[in-house]
Amino acid sequence: MTDETKVATLSAEAITAEEQTPFQLVMRRFRKHRMAMFSLVLIGIIFFISLFAKQLSPFEVDELMVGKYFAPWGNVDQETGRVHYMGTDNIGRDYFSRLIHAGRISLTIAVSAVLISSVVGMAVGAYAGFYGGTIDSVISRFIEFLLTIPTLPLLLILSSMLIRNEDLIPIPAPILYGAGKLMLLSPYQARQGVLIILIFAGLGWLESAQLMRGTTLQLREQTFIEASKSLGASDMQIIFNHMIPNSMAPIIVSASLALGGYIVFEAALSFLGFGIQDPIPTWGNMLSATQQFMLDKPWLPLVPGLPIFICALAFNYVGDGLRDALDPRLKK
Amino acid sequence: MAGYLLRRVLQMILVVFLSAMASYAILNFAPGGPLAGLRQQAQTGRNRITEEDIQRIRAYFELDLYLPIRFSRWFLGLPRGPIVIAGTEFFANTPIGCSKEVEGVYKDSKGNFQTKVIGCAEKVYLTSLVARRTSNGVIRGDFGNSWRLNRDRPVSDLLWSRLPKTILLVGIATLLSLGLAIPLGIYSAVHQYSKFDYFFTSFAFAGASMPTFFFGIMMIMLFSIVFRNMGLPYLPPGSASAVRDWTMPWFGTVTAESTLDRALHLILPVAVLTFISVAGWSRFVRSSMLEVLRQDYIRTARAKGLTEKVVINRHALRNALIPFTTLAVFTLPALFAGAIITETIFSWPGMGRLYFLALGDYDYPVAMSILFIIAILTVIATLIRDILYTVLDPRIRYT
To answer: For chain B: N or C, fewer Cβ within 10 A?
Structure first.
């Protein structure tokens, strides 16, 4: 008697699949991509370190240790007992503190640029795709053309024009104050960061607009949109309840890839001298500063260079993993 | 097709005009401008700049003309003076600018004193343009004179002197990358999930995320500095040729400016450019090849009993390379623009470095012309791509 009931309950459990939310499904597929999982953990660590940059760094970013130039790794400051984990640079500033502050600045710039460009891009893309017509064709031609132009010359000219004249560009004080808090800089120093964010967002919305427009065009003809129209949903309701949730997958993937891209572009601009300027630490300008000491200290460029490479690689892996997880059809 | 082409060419002209306007606007609407430094100088005591000096400099940079006139003179090379029809001058006394601005000082809402242009004391008239030096206009290939890098010499001289170097560098790198990326991508796709494929995909992934400037510095570090310190044959870290003869361990003296010298200087920048583009392109070739290999016509070809070689080379490869032409065609603007980062790191005297130097030195005419030519070449590349598509893929038709 008891045996039979046992068998029955077992089989019932065996044949009903556990119900999974879409999020769980995505997470399960994402976990299969080992490199992406590893990169996600790595990014988590980098975010954690930058979040507590102020608490973790033993020195101030612009604190000069007079006479202690190119101190070796693990050098201890005799007076205060603080440790230069990664030594000091050519004018006696602590490498480790500057590196993690630079990470904070890079990540703030990349994340804010991605957020702004995704929101703007989605708004423009949804508008163009949903209403169509002349505006749509003008917008999409414009986007197509700008996307084909090589990015770097455009970025360089914009940032060289803006950073040079940073004092002349009016930026509302609350924005500077907020950005300064995020980047651990004074509101005045935050100017350059804000300008770089604006430049990246100004060129970055093109891609998300194109993606959003594409999915909106596809969805517009679907029956469930027709159904919600016949139920009396307004255009805004359709866009917010159907268009945006349904196009989130490609937008998220492109945003995670863009994060890595912005970190590299920011480093490239600072490296070439058209981005954030020296007293403010960034991986790019630290790398370009190490160039002149390469003859004596060939390994020096690795210190600011590796974080850039690691971040770029990690964000690309996460983007790759997200693409596989969110849209299995795209899997290569 | 003819109608389509005509429409495309008209669109191209519009786009070229708009991008000329945009690149002009970027440089002219930027706050500050070439006079910002002068004004600060004028306020200090020594070597005080007089009003006449400022007037002369404004005329030199054509800043005393109204913006549409300035743009038209830059773009078309017109107007050059009053319009003369049958010996009579028309519009000779039309004001086209202001050579002496009247500035007023006012107090803004925060209590700071600001200066603002409130009027004009002396106007520039169309007749006075006759005496001025005028370029033939960008549209006729005259990009005006350089401001700083090669002062008062035509921009085109600078461009022509850099172009061969860039074409040499980017051309070799592009050919090498094509030669490597296509076979690698195809081999990897045909042997999907093999050991080679796994190794190759992770290698390509890392390469595609590698920032050029970091990779370039690593190459210099390894092949120029570490090799040299260890007494091994090393490669020169920068510029296109040596200034004086140098000795390479094991091989002996390398004569400056000799072919060997130039070739040795090419190796590192070409290697960096090739590595980066092979990583990106071969991933692209691989995924489009995989896409094609899944198609029904490949199954049909195999079912017909064709050898694998024929299936891959004649049926799959041709179709897999169609999307790749898009990437390949856009090397046209890249050939001109050069590789800004690579050329800067290796001090390669090419177009990319010229652009970098022009931006750093406020030489806006040079920067503006490079940007404008890049835009034109991009438009042309887009047209070539679309035409190539119809040739390569008969399913695509334009009407």
So the answer is: C
Write the pLDDT tens digit of every residue in A36-68: 889 999 999 999 999 998 888 888 888 888 777
pLDDT tens string B322-337: 888 877 888 888 778 7
As a residue count, chain A comes to 332
Contacts of B206 in chain A (CB under 8 A): 313
For residue A266 the two structure tokens come to 């920011």
Q: What is the complex's ipTM, to 2 decimals?
A: 0.85
Beta bridge pairs of residue B39: none
Q: Which residues of chain A have a CB within 8 Å of the CB of B114?
A: none
Q: Spell out the alpha helix ranges (H) of chain A.
A: 2-15, 22-32, 34-51, 53-56, 95-131, 133-148, 151-164, 173-183, 187-220, 223-230, 235-238, 244-246, 248-272, 283-290, 302-326
- Tens digit of each residue's pLDDT (9 = 90 or more) over B172-184: 999 999 999 999 9
A252 closest CA partner among A204, A323, A200, A198: A323
Nearest to B359 among A156, A267, A302 (CB): A156
The candidate with the shortest Cα–Cα distance to B263, out of B167, B166, B168, is B168
Residues of A in contact with B198 (CB under 8 A): none
pTM of the predicted structure, to 2 decimals: 0.86
Is residue B292 helix, strand or coil?
A: helix
Nearest residue, CB atoms, A148 vs list B209, B290, B378:
B378
CB atoms within 10 A of CB B251: 10
